Amino acid sequence: MTQDNHLTSAREGQPTGESLKLTPEQEAARKKRNVVIAWSLVAFMVAVFAITVVRLSQNIAAGAGT
Q: Residue ranges of region Disordered (predicted)?
């Protein structure tokens, strides 16, 4: 095995032991992004729940009259 093949195979899904140190600005930006994603997910779940409750109540009201 040549050295080039060894380097290529190390990049294909194998850990190389390298890590990237983020600057404080990058860490703050990452945290802000994560918070925005989390709140967006919560808002989506609330919207799905509210729509489900409204539609179920409409179906129950329509079924109660018959």
A: 1-25
